[in-house]
């Protein structure tokens, strides 16, 4: 399938793997890219030297395009950007910050730039900054999220109407049916996180993967809106955050409660009660660990089947 996104990234399928902290290292990125999608290394959980190592290993593991996701609010951003240039990265996804700060720099270095947004205001800002495409991420998504709590169903058509660049839909997408729905809303591609978080190649701890697979409806909640909104699986830490918020905790108190390396403790090291467990609402639909290639191919095959089924409907 050739469209604006597959042409922009030179990939086979309009399926992007999200750049997730502690889940998307070089193994997952390479596996998705080798299967015909666009794999992404998540720099948000990596010191600069570790990021360089993952980039170099990904280059060895695939000859297909892959990208790096850079949360702009994280420390060492200048050093990370220098590494992207030195390693010849061609595609960069930026998030959690102002796209105007780095887009010109990256474009001048010949990179394709995509920015993640959660509302129309920032979609327009990203377009004005010169990005090549945007990821419009709905309220259902895992990890960092929008304060407006706009669902994917409402966000995608609104953003698509507002901008003139390709729109990648994210949030609540883990099947061919949901991918087709995103295309019906105007999306040019989909970005998938949670489904790949439980892939065989994901660097997430096995305990975290099993907790995701055993989750049910309502087991995730959007928390810490006074800091950076993040969707979390229920556990002792999430309950403590909920209690603090109910008691009117201020930003400083939430920062103290969050502490350091909380996400690493849960998602990478496997502490299921004291760690921060970031995942999307769609986790309730996931029930099996599979290879990244199997996940991608099943989504694509179902997308085609459902597209043909709808085309055959008579009204």
Offer a few descriptive terms:
single chain; about 325 residues; alpha/beta; TIM Barrel; 2 domains; eight-stranded parallel sheet; three-stranded antiparallel sheet; 11 strands; globular
Description:
- The chain has 315 residues and is an alpha/beta fold.
- The chain has two domains: 4-203 and 285-294, Alpha-Beta Barrel (TIM Barrel), CATH 3.20.20; 210-282, no CATH class.
- The chain is 43% helix and 15% strand.
- It contains 14 helices and eleven strands.
- An eight-stranded parallel sheet has the order 1-9-8-6-5-4-3-2. A three-stranded antiparallel sheet has the order 7-11-10, with helices on one face.
- It is globular.
- The two termini are 27 Å apart.
- Taking pLDDT < 50 over at least 5 consecutive residues as the criterion, the unreliable ranges are none
Backbone shape:
globular
What is the CATH class of the largest domain? Alpha Beta
Largest sheet: 8 strands, parallel
Q: Which helices and strands occur, and which strands form pairs?
A:
Layout: H1 4-9, E1 15-17, H2 26-34, E2 39-42, H3 48-61, E3 66-71, H4 77-86, E4 91-95, H5 103-108, E5 112-117, H6 120-129, E6 133-137, E7 143-144, H7 152-162, E8 167-170, H8 176-184, E9 189-192, H9 194-197, H10 206-214, E10 220-223, E11 230-233, H11 236-246, H12 251-258, H13 262-268, H14 292-312
Parallel strand pairs: 1-9, 2-3, 3-4, 4-5, 5-6, 6-8, 8-9
Antiparallel strand pairs: 7-11, 10-11
Helix pairs in contact: 2-3, 8-14, 11-12
